[in-house]
Every structure is written in C-alpha cells, then in structure tokens.
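pasting for the record
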Amino acid sequence: MSLVYGCGRVVGDLHKGRGMTCEDAVGVWCDVQRGKYVGVVAGGHGDPTCVRSAKGAQLAVDVAIEYLKDFSADNDAQALASLAKCMVKEWKHRVLSDLQERPIEQDELGNVSRDSVELWCRSHPAHLYGSTVVAVLFTREYCAFFQQGDGCCAYICGDGTITYPMPADDKCVGNLTTSLSDDDAEDCIRFCRIALSENQVMGLFVATDGVDKSYVAREHLDAFFREVIIETQHMREEELSASITEMLV
C-alpha cells in the first residue's frame, strides 16, 4: 500500500499574542518500496523555565524517526514497549549531551532568572527541554502509535469512521501535561497497535494539543480530520504539507 504523507506547523494564536515563536516540531519519513511510513509531532511546553523546549521537541522528532524507521515489522507488544522505552532514554541522553555541549546563554533566559535555570540544571536538567511527542509507524501489516503527553492520534477507517486508539493519560488535564522529561517517562509512555488485516485505513493523523484543544467537541475535531482527507486526497507529497500548514492557520 502506498500513502501520501505530509506535515505542517504554525505559531498558535496564544503564542502570537505573547510574542513567542513556534516551539513544536514535526517530521515524516517513508520507504515506499517497503511500505513503511513514520510521522512524528512534538510539542515544546511553552513554560518560561523550559528555555530549550523547541530544541527538545526537535530532538524528540529526530529520535522517534531514527528509531521507528529502523524498527522491524515485529508488532509484538513487548517489542513495542521496549522500543518506546528506548526512545525516551535516547531523548534524555541527547538533551543532556546538548546541555553539556552548549551551556545556557544569557539571551536564552528571557524573563527567567539565571538562578532558576541553574537550579534546574542541577536538579532536573531535562526539564529545560520539556516536550511531548506523538508518533505513528505504519507498515503493510500494522500501524503503531506512541505518545507521551497531550495531543492525539487518529485512525480513519475505510468507511470514514474515526477512532482515537491511544489510552487516555489521566495526568493530562487542562493545560497540564506529562512530558518526556518526567522521571517516569520511560515507564509511562503509551503505545497501541492496530492490525491492518482487520482494519482498512483511509488516513492516519498525529497532532499536538494545539490542534486537539482547538475544538470544544470531539466531533469538530473529527470534521477537521475528514476535511484534511477530502481536500488533500489527490495531492502529491510536495503539495500536501503546504496545504496542511494553510489549514492550520
């Protein structure tokens, strides 16, 4: 099966109002011959003390793509759980390496005091890079979703039915979210899998909370995803990302 894939990101209205840049990151990868696709989004926290959350989000996307594209077609639950743990551990390793190589500069602090940042550096340095991540791996046999923090995964069946297969995270309430930087992230990162032999797929989506929380009711989010499918079904890859970005504005 061959899929058309794309991604987009924009600065949200709340960030614009505060003069903030986009702290989210997105990425896609595919191997058409093997029928394998990866899509990843990561949401930087926007907390002033997470002074490198944009970098943390980009590292989350990089790590997820690297690990998922090399993962075998084995969809055993234990193998997927191990993969999820490894991605979190690698993300933490990379943020610590980045901090060691590039100590926090004064111009990164914004309105946060140097003392506050240095305290985080000593007690919980990964916090400075706080980010969520939502990823999907699609193969000819199955698709697997991975998620730490808020955001959503959507699976659109051949009959147009939309499901959100990821188990809920009860700690994500309002503007509160779990994070890749949490001490227990390796054990709490969620994943699920769907056998394609039992489910015809029309579309797969992963989105940060900037999309998920823009709609009061779930049926409105459903309508947005259906609109994306309808508007982009005849597009080529290079057109799709531009169209998704325009729809997010």
